[in-house]
Design goal:
Layout (H helix, E strand, L loop, with lengths): L1 E5 L3 H11 L6 E5 L4 H7 L5 E5 H14 L10 E5 L5 H7 L5 E3 L7 H11 L5 H4 L16 H9 L1 H8 L5 E4 L6 H12 L5 E5 L8 H6 E2 L10 E2 L1 H5 L3 E5 L6 H13 L1 E2 L8 E2 L3 E6 L3 H6 L5 H7 L3 E3 L10 H11 L3 E2 L1 H8 L6 H15 L4 E2 L11
Parallel strand pairs: 1-2, 1-3, 3-4, 4-5, 6-13, 6-14, 7-10, 10-13, 15-16
Antiparallel strand pairs: 8-9, 11-12
Helix pairs in contact: 1-15, 8-9, 15-16, 15-17
């Protein structure tokens, strides 16, 4: 089977390569020419197309999907990769013309290809080879442990949480990726308001109420009217990191706002409702803090109704290649296989943050566009 991926993203290309590696009868071709003509030129010789929406844009997608009656009319399986957009919105817009997924669902691609093959009968011999589940290792479950991990036991569950209205508590070691996951929850939620992020450890206790709830003019000397974080987030998401650092006397004020789902600006008697989601994060054992009376039990019970444990990077080493490739891409570089293997050999006590620093530092010090194993610098010293 000939699968053609059109993308400019090295991260997307690498993730797709991981998802389909070792699949019998499946050949992946990565095309990085940003041209609709290039897509149309290969249609006659492909069995399946995977199109990155950020690569072609809406007009380009329409040209490809409508040309000659559309690829599906020729028996070609078409998959759209949501990129920065919403897979749900994409699926609605292109219903009946293509299947839609995002980069973290690429582990499902082999199974989706097998399903497409079963639905097309024997019209395309190469596609037909995937009708036999025995040809797909794991019966459609990607052999790549990263894709399986993400789909089955972690990110898929987080996506389900994201689509609810519930507040969320993220618990994990420093640098494990809690801030990144909070942003993903916001993106997957489909909320229309803002995403705001603040570390409670950075807010002086005397300013906590004005920062969170806002102030009215004249509330105290030199006070001006100011919108707080809850109000500024609107119906979106407010990410409050280091919740365990909040002093006890302020925890009761936060609990009251959460319990009533409303707040008052400092100096005001007017209650203002808020409909946004709050995502809390900590690297602290809050249960132990409750037992030691360093954290209020009622607040812990309120924020821990939906708790997500973010595993440290050493428990998910198969994440390293995809994460590293994304960090390198942000620096305008790519990583060779040898560089990825070297990065995967390290345990990263500093978790995702340490991996990012290593990759970014190595990219800055490498004069070439593609880094090899010798270009990876674990030490900060030059």
């Amino acid at each position: 089977m000939e699968l053609y991926l059109f993308t400019r993203s090295a991260f997307v290309a690498h993730s797709c390569q991981l998802a389909v590696r070792d699949k019998a009868g499946l050949n992946l071709h990565v095309m990085q020419e940003e041209c609709v003509t290039q897509v149309l030129s290969v249609i006659r010789r492909v069995d399946a197309l995977l199109l990155d929406c950020d690569f072609l844009g809406k007009a380009g997608l329409e040209s490809v999907l409508s040309s000659g009656g559309g690829p599906r009319a020729r028996g070609i399986a078409v998959f759209l990769l949501a990129g920065s957009g919403s897979p749900e919105a994409l699926a609605k817009a292109y219903a009946g013309r293509a299947e839609c997924l995002d980069v973290f669902s690429l582990g499902e691609l082999p199974a989706m290809l097998g399903k497409a093959a079963s639905g097309r009968g024997s019209g395309r011999p190469r596609l037909e080879r995937l009708r036999n589940p025995a040809l797909i290792p794991g019966r459609g479950v990607a052999a790549d442990p990263l894709a399986r991990y993400r789909r089955d036991s972690f990110l898929e569950e987080v996506k389900l949480v994201a689509r609810t209205r519930a507040d969320v508590l993220l618990v994990g070691e420093s640098g494990a990726g809690k801030s990144w996951l909070a942003e993903r929850i916001y993106a997957w939620s489909g909320r229309q308001g803002n995403f705001l992020s603040e570390s409670l450890a950075n807010i002086p206790p005397s300013l906590f109420e004005s920062e969170l709830f806002g102030t009215v003019s004249g509330a105290y000397t030199d006070a001006v009217s100011k919108m707080g974080l809850l109000e500024a987030a609107g119906g979106g998401t407010l990410f409050l990191d280091e919740i365990g650092e909040l002093p006890l006397h302020l925890q009761s004020k936060l609990f009251s706002a959460l319990d009533k789902r409303s707040f008052r600006r400092v100096g005001s008697l007017k209650e203002q409702p808020f409909s946004g989601r709050i995502i809390f994060a900590t690297n602290m054992d809050l249960e132990e803090a409750v037992r030691e009376r360093r954290f209020r039990e009622e607040l812990w019970g309120r924020i821990s109704m939906v708790t997500v444990r973010v595993p440290p990077l050493r428990e998910r080493p198969s994440d390293i290649p995809s994460l590293a490739s994304r960090f390198a891409e942000d620096e305008g570089k790519t990583l060779s296989v040898s560089a990825l293997e070297k990065l995967s050999s390290y345990r990263y006590p500093g978790n995702v943050r340490e991996l990012k620093h290593i990759v970014c530092r190595s990219c800055l010090l490498c004069p070439r566009d593609t880094l090899g194993a010798d270009d990876i610098r674990f030490s900060r010293a030059l």
